Give the backbone structure.
Amino acid sequence: MLLRYKKYAPLLFMLIFPVLGELYALVNKPGPTVYRLTTPLDNAIPFVKYFAVPYSIWIVYIYACIVYFFMKDLRVYYRSLTVYTLCALACYCIYSVFQTTVPRPELVGDDIFTRLVAYIYHRDRPFNCFPSIHVFSSYMVFRMMADSGFRNKRNVAFTACMSALIILSTLFVKQHAILDGLAAIVLVEVVLAFVLAAERYWVGGQAAERRNSTYGA
């Protein structure tokens, strides 16, 4: 029984998510100046209420992917949590000094999809858009899967499709602008490169320490 608990103990690191949620609440309010990064291309993208579904299941998808990484490879699991946390903190820092917004359409109708969009608009205030957390996290889990040692056609295709749907949903439900998504992808690439470099440095340092210990024996 004790061994079973020890096996799943690393999942406790996922408690970082509610902590990050509380930090997000601190910056989820309007500042003195709110900018718009929308372009004519953003304005040409239609509002499609049905994309509220993939937008809404985003966090469940992210959690499921990270648990899957835990089951397959602890290194990928820890790397994912590290990249997510660093990206989220970077976003919060940006939100605190550079707030952007996206104009929201007037909702018409009382069907389930319209009500879901209304719930999204009520829950997610339009002040923290650049970079997009939905986009960076969805792109991050796809990158982790595609670069993992346990990747196969099925899991890569699944994460590619789901991540793409969620990323597109941020545009079609008018929660984000195109620049928000592009910035999120760049953020993941920069943070991931930093994390991988830190891992190589750490592993190289440990190897050198073992060699020195052996030579001194």
User: Anything to note?
Assistant: The chain is about 70% helix and 5% strand.
